[in-house]
Write a structure and sequence with these properties.
CATH architecture of the largest domain: 3-Layer(aba) Sandwich
Number of helices: 16
CATH superfamily of the largest domain: Aldehyde Dehydrogenase, Chain A, domain 1
Family: Belongs to the aldehyde dehydrogenase family.
Protein name: Aldehyde dehydrogenase (NAD+)
Keywords: Oxidoreductase
InterPro entries: Ald_DH/histidinol_DH, Ald_DH_C, Ald_DH_CS_GLU, Ald_DH_N, Aldehyde_DH_dom
Radius of gyration: 23 Å
Strand content: 15-25%
Structural class: alpha/beta
Shape: globular
Number of strands: 25
Pfam family, one: Aldedh
């Protein structure tokens, strides 16, 4: 068992008060590691280190030099792929194949933003005679990053990568449930030459370290990924300092299947988008909407795949691993209890393998059919391997169902009718729309974010670079 400390100004430091937080392996329930329990004083130290970096070596680098460092760090991530895969599997509970894919994605984010750092250009604006007006992009300054436990590496890559590319210095508060790969990443970044203070990491509870970061008076921008309730608190705290916030707050994303869809292609996406990472994905497709004439066919096909799903320890690399904690397991089981109480019909379930450790946080993937659109399980984010499926009779009804939740993160549309594809895509209330696919293979290049209670702002892709910068307008009178 390893004890991890905070990473501040390229040094590993104990929390000011010396306390720790236990991290447990969700596959076994055993204690895996201990984290420093950072609080306000630790966040203050990290913010000061970031501010000093902006006036020091990090702040003096050109965009090209920053990009080269990020590219080197990305290569360093791949050198450590086996180590990071093992840690992510044990820490988050991801099957090894999924954990390894996340390492590759982190490296790709750094490659993408490393290559993009010197590609952000301002404009010259036509104006009155005798004036030249131009715009430039400047870093916000010190950026705060509150990272969730479900995809520590991927969300660090899309958030931190863009922030550093634009010249910000960062303070990261990862989730206490699962953040060990983020701490290992700090070691890699230091080894690959990231100047002191450009990246600082303070571990701890959200109500302590996270709240201190959100309301800190010397933070210039906050990136938060997590629940809508916590996002509301982060934005409220930041508003007192007039600090911009990027919020990605989850969803209740639908895949809409019309009768003319290629079901052989669609069904694997329908299932995998709901059970990947045990359903603990903000953009998970937790609602499947199907045109009535093919409804029973889709249920039969999905049920066959569900019954083949095996759930077990992450190291076994089965279809589904454990959820992240016993607390998360209890939340999901509470939703399933509501389903039983209300008489919802289970179409199919996966199977927890017999030798799964008794203290592991295992949940059998569950497909529920004929769920009323206004039911809790069709409206609320469960964040577990649970999908609901319901029929529709017309394009108008399909659209109303797809848009009929408080969320608006992702929507999938399955149809070969080109006109319908565009009508649905334009009318869907979602930040991303996928037609005859879902997720686009990860899509580091694709801007990501939501509308409604799924949040605002965009990360991933080139668009994220603008979010981590301020535009300055310069007007020159020269006669």
């Amino acid at each position: 068992m390893k004890t991890y400390r905070n990473f501040i100004a390229n040094e590993w430091r104990d929390a000011v008060d010396g306390e720790h937080i236990a991290v447990r392996n969700p596959s076994t329930g055993e204690e895996l590691a201990r984290l420093a329990r950072g609080r306000r004083e630790d966040v203050d130290l990290a913010v000061r280190a970031a501010r000093q970096a902006l006036s020091g070596e990090w702040g003096r680098l050109t965009a090209t030099e920053r990009g080269r460092i990020l590219t080197r760090i990305g290569a360093g991530v791949l050198k450590n792929i086996d180590l990071l895969t093992e840690i992510e599997a044990r820490d988050v509970g991801k099957p090894l194949t999924q954990a390894r894919a996340d390492v590759v994605a982190l490296a790709r984010y750094l490659e993408f933003y490393g290559a993009s750092a010197d590609k952000v250009h301002g404009d010259t604006i036509p104006y009155q005679n005798g004036f030249t007006v131009l715009t430039i992009y400047e870093p916000h300054g010190v950026t705060g990053h509150i990272i969730p436990w479900n995809y520590p590496m991927q969300i660090l890559g899309r958030s931190l990568g863009a922030a550093l590319a634009m010249g910000n210095a960062a303070v990261v508060k990862p989730a206490e449930e699962a953040c060990l790969t983020i701490l290992e990443f700090a070691r890699i970044a230091q080894e690959e030459g990231l100047p002191a203070g450009a990246l600082n990491i303070v571990t701890g509870f959200g109500a302590e370290a996270g709240a201190a970061l959100s309301e800190h008076t010397d933070i210039n921008h906050i990136s938060f990924t997590g629940s809508a309730r916590t996002g509301e608190m982060v934005q409220t705290a930041a508003a007192k300092n007039a600090v911009p916030v990027t919020l990605e707050l989850g969803g209740k994303s639908a895949q809409v299947v019309f009768a003319d869809a290629d079901l052989d292609r669609a069904v694997p996406f329908l299932v995998n988008a709901g059970i990947q990472n045990a359903g603990q994905t903000c953009s998970a497709s937790s609602r499947i909407l199907v045109e009535r004439s093919v409804y029973e066919d889709v249920i039969a096909r999905m049920s066959e795949k569900y019954r083949a799903l095996k759930v077990g320890p992450a190291e076994s690399d089965l279809s589904v691993g454990p959820v992240v904690s016993q607390r998360q397991k209890a939340i999901i089981e509470d939703f399933l209890g509501v389903a039983r109480k209300d008489g919802l019909t289970v179409a199919a379930q996966g199977t927890i393998v017999p030798d799964a450790p008794a203290d592991g946080a295992y949940v059998a993937p569950t497909l529920l059919r004929d769920v009323p659109p206004d039911h809790r399980l069709a409206q609320e984010e469960i964040f577990g391997p649970v999908q609901v499926i319901m029929p529709f009779d017309s394009e108008e009804e399909a659209l109303a169902l797809a848009n009929g939740t408080p969320y608006g993160l992702v929507c999938g549309i399955w149809t070969n009718d080109g006109g319908r594809q565009l009508r649905m895509a334009r009318a869907a209330q979602a930040g991303q729309v996928f037609i005859n696919n879902y997720g686009a293979g990860g899509g580091v290049e694709l801007p990501f974010g939501g509308v409604k209670k799924s949040g605002h702002g965009r990360e991933k892709g080139f668009e994220a670079l603008y979010g981590f910068a301020s535009m300055k307008t310069i007007s020159i009178f020269h006669g």
